Amino acid sequence: MRTLFNNGWIEIAFRWILGITFIYASYYKILSPTDFAKMVYGYNLFPEVLINLIAIVLPFVELISGLSLLLGIYPRSAALIINGLLLAFIFILTINIIRGHEFDCGCFSAGKTGSPKMMVARDVIYLIMGLQIFWFNGVRKGCFIRKNHCKRLK
Amino acid sequence: MQWNKTIVEMIFLLGISIILAFTVNFFSPAGIAIVSQWDESLGVVASKADSDVFSGELKIEDVKTAKQIYDKRTAVFVDARSLENFKNGHIKGAESLPLDQFDNFIKAFKEKYPANTFIVTYCSGRTCNDSQRLEQLLFDHGYVNVSIFIDGYQGWKAEGYPIE
Questions:
Q1: Between the CA of residue B53 and those of B48, B70, B127, what are the distances in Å?
Q2: Are B127 and A80 within 8 A, CB to CB?
Q3: Cβ of A9 under 8 Å from any chain B Cβ?
Q4: Does A131 touch chain B if contact means CB atoms closer than 8 Å?
Q5: A73, A145 in Cβ contact below 8 A?
Q6: Which of A131, A143, B72, B96 gives a 20 to 30 Å CA spacing to A1?
């Protein structure tokens, strides 16, 4: 198990999967912040003043962290940011599942997402990948730009 | 574990994200307000300033006014929601003009209703902006007399007004 967790090929596979997933996830949100803001509102957990700020900033945190993972620039730190986001997503979704809150604005423009339980399961899998990337202690593969970002930890 | 190094790198990545986010939001035509109206009791919730979303004279802000217009039979109520939602229930006598299939539906609509028709658009309620987007599209197609009923189907249905 330990060897598996420290396998460089698994690390790069997870890094690319998470990287591409987060870049893809950010794309629609950046194109349509209006719709994303409505989804943030729909979770019914954030104060009014934070809704637009979250909708503006979060997609770019996803984009930059995703790119960092993909290109191997500060991969450990990017994984930590993504793990933080995933923990927050899991927490928010779980709260809404427990209190039975489901938001459907009936808007064509807001798009469709999966069921909350499926989203939690998916985020837990991503979190496991993120933890492997974070705890990996070997020479990382596929660091095309800055090889010194991917050295073994001392 | 080199925590100091990791924290500095995280601050760097987050800093770039924040700077990029506000820069893109400032220059992008799709950019949103930093703070906007998210209280449904005060009107339609949206990520832009209210003035950007509706011009005041276009809004029908309460269900009773909408019902008075409906009873006079001078206006055509137009449903901006998906065809599926429309089939599941709509304001009695309303026309369907789903925003996601607007191009397929507008030709037949224009043949049926002249440009001076009084149109009231609606969607599901105060959490959707589709009725406002439909109003803009209809305006682009020459309809000059369009109002937006902001409480939409949910508000209408809650009052027990005619649906089908």
A1: 7, 24, 13
A2: no
A3: no
A4: no
A5: yes
A6: A143
What is the ipTM for the molecules in this complex? 0.88
Sorted by where each begins, the domain ranges of chain A are 2-150
- The residue behind tokens 């967790």 is A5
For the segment B97-107, what is each residue's pLDDT rounded down to a tens digit? 998 899 999 99
Q: Determine whether the interchain pair B18/A57 forms a contact, defined as Cβ–Cβ distance below 8 Å.
A: yes
Task: State the nearest Cα–Cα gap between A117 and chain B, in angstroms.
Answer: 24
Pick from A52, A53, A106: which is nearest to B124 by CB? Answer: A106
Q: β-pairing, B95-96 with B75-79?
A: parallel
Give pLDDT tens digits for A81-112.
999 999 999 999 899 889 887 766 555 555 55
The residues spanned by each domain of chain B are: 1-31, 40-158
CATH superfamily of B40-158: Rhodanese-like domain (3.40.250.10)
Output the six-digit token pair for A54: 């979250």
